[in-house]
Amino acid sequence: MANYDESQIQVLEGLEAVRKRPGMYIGSVSERGLHHLVYEIIDNSVDEALAGYCTEINVEILPDNIISVSDNGRGIPLGKHPKMGIPTVEVVYTILHAGGKFGGGGYKVSGGLHGVGASVVNALSEWVKVQVCRGEGTHEITFKRGKVDVPLHKIDDETKCGTKVMFKADDTIFETTVYDYDTLKIRLREMAFLNKGLKITLWDKREEGTEKQVFHYEGGIKSFVEYLNKSKEPIQKEILYIEAEQNNVQVEISFQYTNAYSENILSFVNNIPTPEGGTHVDGFKRGLTKTFNDYARRFNILKEKDANLVGEDIREGITAVVSVRVLEPQFEGQTKTKLGNSEVTGIVNSIVINKVGEFLEENPNISKSIAEKTLSAARAREAARKARELVRRKSALESTTLPGKLADCQEKDASKCEVYIVEGDSAGGSAKQGRDRRFQAILPLWGKMLNVEKTRADKIYGNDKLNPVIVALGTGIGNDFNIEKLRYHKVILMADADVDGAHIRTLLLTFFFRYMRPLVENGNIYIAQPPLFKLSKKGMEDIYCYDEIDLDVKLKELEEKGIARETLGMQRYKGLGEMDSEQLWETTMNPETRILVKVELDDAIAADEVFSVLMGENVEPRRKFIEENAKFVDNLDI
How many Å from the N-terminal Cα to the C-terminal Cα in the chain? Predict the structure, then answer.
């Protein structure tokens, strides 16, 4: 037996635990974790705004990827801490779970990481410099890798209050220390929407042509809904806005209906995004369903014999932002993605019933338009149910419940299985012959499938292009979706490397995003990367290149070995069908050598907007998008 005694028990002091296991505190040491450091410092400034003391936050990305965050809040206390005996600002930055967010009266509600944010940033930075002014001069303290380097000292006689934090992330911990401007821009814009009147400035000073943006929305989440719907056609011009407080829970809700067929509900707790929803979203949905059904009954829109409208009917086409502020939020899981406070459901529910009920009665024309859309959605849902049952009955009568063209794999453990959704029958035939049938399944699709952005679910069931995908994956779609039933944990889209192939991939990605979104969020969707070129020469092993850049690199490497370009045979593949089964396996399907691109959902708001613009009914936003982005096209396949 290995020796296990008292000496094996390790005690990590101070911030050593954070440096030893950074993933426990910021999720990962990837680019996502790096940006999380910035959010933690910004959250502390936003908490000052929530408390009513801060109106401006300035974020700068300085040369060498140094971050500076300054605010005009009260400033972190500077005096000696009564318990620790050292300056309070030093306590905040060197001791975990030290802050004004644990019931000491510093903050009523907080979005910060429960007091560990500042110290975690300090622990994971090469250095941190904090400057604080509380009306009697600016004081500065500097840290190196979590420990005090230069003690607190006065540097000027400034009287304007505020806090400025500068830090450089530790490159011995993070995979990259280069910040992405767009990633920060998206989060800061969101924070400005959620805190009406708060002015947030983001300034990238890393290059001469600096980029600067100011986010300032007096309309708050009402402006947020307007922003989300800028590419959609609203059926109600007025955006409904609710603001109320009950039992110390502050509730802000704003929503608007559009002619879209999907719902888009964004939710937040103390400014923290909750993509999995929670009790605040449950309360909103319940209140909305009850209010609309009561209204429809009262005004005879629903007859006595009619069944009640269900929630999905009422929420079709809605864009909503639900933001609550809770004294003691309880989140489910480490990632804070779902609110668990049970009392919030009833509070939000009652507020929605009262406020939305008043709105519907005071705006009969808008109410009628929404009612017509919900009734239309109910009819489509019933049609979808019948189509779904018809498909199920038909499948049950056939010799197998799986699509006829699906070449299934032998493995039954879904976590080890992958399915290639292949463009074209000829490529599908090559893929079937070249695959490893133990764990690889092939589903060929021919031609362009339905654009689901422009249709309801009742048109999807029975569609000869999409239904085989639904049946093969086994999860169902929309509200029937169940990821536990997924038959293949890797769903790989394999299409030609041309405009038609890109269109087919886009149509499939639209379908997955709108009707099987958990597959995207869970990282189950991949895009195969077939080669564009093959270089060959007698006596030399074939070389495959995946794009023009790869081709230039390979050609230069061969020239350095004395092989002239003119002596090489070069083939440009026009489609997957030009490769035989052995080539397809070698270049695109062999797990040892293939390149797969995982489809990830980093920004659901941006993804929703892109699908609406590129695949939706509105022509004008699409035309504008093409005009603005045409200059970036390098290879237009005509």
Answer: 69
Backbone angles phi, psi at 531, to 5 degrees: -70, 155
Q: What is the DSSP string of 560-605?
A: HTT--GGGSEEEE-SSGGGS-HHHHIIIII-TTT--EEE---S-HH
Between 630 and 521, whose confidence is greater? Answer: 521
Which positions ≥6 away from 482 have C-beta within 8 Å? 475, 476
Split at pLDDT 50, 70, 90, the class of 638 is very low
- CA diameter of the chain: 86
What residues act catalytically? 423, 496, 498, 500
Q: How many Cβ atoms from other residues are within 10 Å of residue 416's Cβ?
A: 13
Q: Which residue has the tokens 């006689």?
A: 157
State how far the alpha carbon of 108 is from the alpha carbons of 111, 280, 329, 434, in Å. 11, 19, 12, 63
What is the average pLDDT across 366-393? 82
Supply the pTM of this predicted model: 0.78
Contact 204, 181 (CB under 8 A): yes
On whether the CB atoms of residues 321 and 224 are closer than 8 A, the answer is yes
Structure tokens at 152: 């607190």
Given the structure tokens 């864009």, which residue do they identify?
Answer: 319
What is the rounded average pLDDT for all residues in the chain? 87
CB-based contacts of 139, cutoff 8 Å, min separation 6: 78, 89, 131, 132, 133, 152, 153, 154, 155
- Round to whole Å and give the CA distance between 22 and 30: 11
Tell me how far apart the alpha carbons of residues 52 and 42 are, in angstroms, rounded to a whole number: 15
Q: Which of 267, 459, 431, 283 is nearest to 355 (CA)?
A: 283
Instruction: Tell me which DSSP letter residue 407 carries.
Output: B
The predicted structure's pLDDT at residue 627: 73
Return the structure tokens found at 621. 């936003």
214 and 201 Cβ atoms separated by less than 8 Å = yes
Question: 604-615 and 181-194 helices cross at what angle (nearest 10)?
Answer: 100
Q: Walk me through the domains of the chain, giving residue ranges and CATH numbers.
A: 16-216 (3.30.565.10), 221-381 (3.30.230.10)
- Backbone φ and ψ for 386, nearest 5 degrees, come out as -65, -40
Backbone angles phi, psi at 88, to 5 degrees: -60, -35
Alpha carbon distance 266, 331 (integer Å): 16
* pLDDT value for 635: 56
CB distance 551 to 532 below 8 Å: yes
